[in-house]
Amino acid sequence: MTDSSRLQLTMVEESTFGTTPTDPAMIPIPCTGQSLADQIGYAQSRILQPNRNVQDLVRLSLGAGGDIPMELVWGDAASGTSSTIEATYAIVRAAICSAAATAVADVASCTTTAGAKTITRGSGSFISDGFEVGDVVRTSGSTGTADDGFQIVTAVVALTLTVARPSNFTGSVGNVTVRRGARLKNGTTDRSFSIEAKHSDGTSNFHQLFAGMVCDGIEVAVADGQISTLSSRWVGKTSTTGTSEGIPGTPTYPALVSRPVMDCIGVPTFRVAGVDYAAKSIRIATSLSAAARTQIGSLGAQSVRRGSFVVTGAIEAYFSSWSEVDKFRNNTATDILLVTRDSADRAWSFSLPEVKYSTGSVRTPGQNDDEFVTLNFQAIIDATEALTLRFQVFDA
Predict the structure, then answer these.
(1) Fewer CB atoms inside 10 A, N or C side of the chain?
(2) Which residues contact 167 (CB under 8 A, 6 or more apart)?
(3) What is the pLDDT of residues 201-222, one digit of tens each?
(4) Number of structural domains found in the chain
(5) Cα separation, 30 vs 42, whole angstroms
(6) Contact, 313 vs 284, CB < 8 A?
(7) Backbone φ and ψ of 5, nearest 5°
(8) Average pLDDT of the chain to the nearest whole number
(9) Contact, 263 vs 223, CB < 8 A?
(10) CATH number, domain at 79?
């Protein structure tokens, strides 16, 4: 009998939908389980028989799909400070249909302006270095660290960045480094993957190779007292099974990179409308309404359709103000920034610049308890940034 503790789940991006590359370097997936499976559609024959027996059960469709749950582990981006791509990053990029990431940009020897929210440099140009409105930037090295942290850029000129943060800078002259993480925007770049599940009983190995797998969406969940999680949902073509790799050529299996797991403590920034928010939990989910395309004369998906990019989520926070509930009632848009990092100080940021609440209520659990505000939201395209979700990767 196979043992779940010996599962090896790996993936590789396909150049052609449904075709596994030859001699691939498989990318290990740091999963906590998996539910990938073949999905077969049947129809019962309706031929009438006097003995009441069923004439046939006809197979009409064949596909694959399922979920891959993971703990939230930082994943490297090829356009970061290394040439590798790790699974969690590849999955997020595929889920938001982003093109390749814009590379990390670092600007040293900057100054934060006391009593303002501006950052200046002595020479060069923030514009030429690729900074833009909506970027999440990380400031570090300031005197006393008071001006360190993550902020959203609201204006860019050659020598100055204006940022959104809860309070003005205290002022730190010539010693601040500004980093813009590797940047991805939701877009229209479609990707498909081959995903292999290797099951082992310690003596024999059982391989199942899923081809033409498309990420239909992800869910990022951060909650007080819990490990943060990243779950992905997949729609695909089919699978093959055997007792050896079904991958053409000679695949290689790099070891899983050991990364610290992200948790609720490693959330240096969660802001709503530029203000730090005392949340108990936040969930951000994406969906593409992916569906297999089938045709007469062919069994299984010939391709996978992607629909509208939809981002929804939920926030639960201690109740201390009507501000967000009033936004729900008044149909007022806001923005959300979530930054989560690991103990090695690597971070991911999720920025939603245009959000509207679909529900907003105050919950009273009972006697001797705190009251909570519960908010469900949907992100929509922001007219200035021309996107719904901005994802950035920050190396340590």
Answers:
(1) N
(2) none
(3) 888 889 999 999 999 999 999 9
(4) 3
(5) 34
(6) yes
(7) -70, -10
(8) 94
(9) no
(10) 2.30.110
The answer on 165 and 122 residing in a single domain is: yes
344 and 201, same structural domain? no
Mean predicted confidence (pLDDT) in 270-288: 93
* Residue 163: inside a domain: yes
> Of 25-34, 251-260, 304-313, 342-351, which gets the smallest average pLDDT?
251-260
Beta carbons within 8 Å of 52's beta carbon, 6+ residues apart? none
Give me the amino acid identity at 382. D
**Alpha helix stretches (DSSP H) within 204-358:** 323-330
Q: How far, in Å, CA of 85 to CA of 71, rounded?
A: 18
Q: Are residues 159 and 201 in the same domain?
A: no
Largest CA distance in the chain: 92
Q: How far apart are CA 312 and CA 289, in angstroms?
A: 13
Average confidence (pLDDT) over 326-347: 96
Paired with 359 in beta bridges are: 376
The b/e string for 69-104 (b: 16+ C-beta within 10 A; e otherwise) is: ebbbbbbbbbbbeeeebbbbbbbbbbbbbbeebbeb
Q: Are residues 306 and 387 in the same domain?
A: yes
Q: CA 191 to CA 377: how far, in whole Å?
A: 27
CA 90 to CA 104: how far, in whole Å? Answer: 17
Residue 110: which residues within 8 A CB-CB, separation 6 or more? 119, 120, 121, 139, 174, 176, 177, 178
For residue 82, what pLDDT is reported? 66
**CATH number of 141's domain:** 2.40.30.20
pLDDT tens-place string over residues 252-263:
999 988 899 999
Position 132: which residue type? E
pLDDT in the model for residue 110: 98
Here the tokens at position 348 are 């991911």
pLDDT (0 to 100) of residue 57: 93
Same domain (yes/no): 210, 238? yes
- Residue 202's pLDDT is 81
Question: Is 203 in the same domain as 79?
Answer: yes
330 CB contacts (<8 Å, ≥6 apart)? none
Q: Which helix (H) or strand (E) holds 92?
A: helix 87-95
Residue range(s) defining the domain that contains residue 248: 4-39+57-99+193-259
Residue type, 128: S
Average of pLDDT values for 159-181? 96
What is the structure's pLDDT at 81? Answer: 64
C-alpha span between 266 and 345 (Å, rounded): 9
